[in-house]
Amino acid sequence: MDLGLTGKVAVVTGGSEGIGRAAAQSLGREGASVVVCGRRADVLQHAAEEVAEATGAQIVPVSADVTQPTDVERVIQTAVERFGRLDILVNNAGTSATGEFESLTDDAWQDDLDLKLFGAIRASRAAIPHIRKNGGGSIVNILNLGSKAPGPRSYPTSVSRAAGLALTKALSKEFAGDRIRVNAILIGLIKSGQHERRWRAAGSSGSLEDFTPRWRALRARRSVGWARRPKWAT
After folding, report:
1. N or C: which end of the chain has fewer CB within 10 A?
2. What is the reported pLDDT for 193?
3. Whole-number pLDDT of residue 231
4. Measured distance between the N- and C-terminal CA atoms of the chain, rounded to whole angstroms
5. Domain 9-191+219-232: which topology?
């Protein structure tokens, strides 16, 4: 499939594993150069090397925390300085956070919003001037189904993601005139390292398969395969 990405430059946050890594690999296979960021430098470096080897693309790892504004600016600047442009931003950084409403502290709410909502705000704000300069491009926000149909005890994630959906819609309308597309991908359960860590943290006596709900857990690469097709973008 040729998506016309040869020579384009992308930034993927949360790019060390799961959907972020799969997004970087898909973009690389389509001819894009990719800057990936994540908090775990060793895991990120290993992922970048493997993706580069698999795709032949230039994959640049940058250790960064999207809750830190200066880190986000450094990631975007790395892409521009290294490749001279920026065309695509994938806001993927995040983690699962759920709990009973009465047990969640203000800090738990603030931490989740800072990572998922404000992380996307910071990255988009830093990226948009560069994307506009190239005559347009694309921002993709990775959200989840809970942003539209939250379940019990799905907070704070579902609330943060609902705000992310509102952000997506507002940005898409404001920057349409600059030819910047802003879309959201609403994912379901993804079989990834994050899901496995939840299983281990739960201390379940059963297997990972037993811990996984009865509905099918899609592999991360399959989710991104769908996300690559415009008709699947929300």
Report:
1. N
2. 54
3. 32
4. 21
5. Rossmann fold (3.40.50)
- Which amino acid appears at position 142 of this protein? I
Q: State the pLDDT at residue 225.
A: 46
- Whether the bond into 152 is cis, omega within 30 of 0: no
Structural tokens at position 184: 């959201």
Rounded distance, CA 167 to CA 184, Å? 10
The residues, ordered by sequence, that sit 6+ positions from 233 with a Cβ below 8 Å of its Cβ are 140, 183, 184, 185, 227
Query: Which residues does 46 contact at the CB level (< 8 Å), separation at least 6?
Result: none
Question: Which of 127, 129, 158, 128 is closest to 144 using CA atoms?
Answer: 158
Tell me how far apart the alpha carbons of residues 207 and 182 are, in angstroms, rounded to a whole number.
Answer: 39
Q: Give the pTM.
A: 0.84
Give residue 96's pLDDT. Answer: 84
pLDDT in the model for residue 191: 59
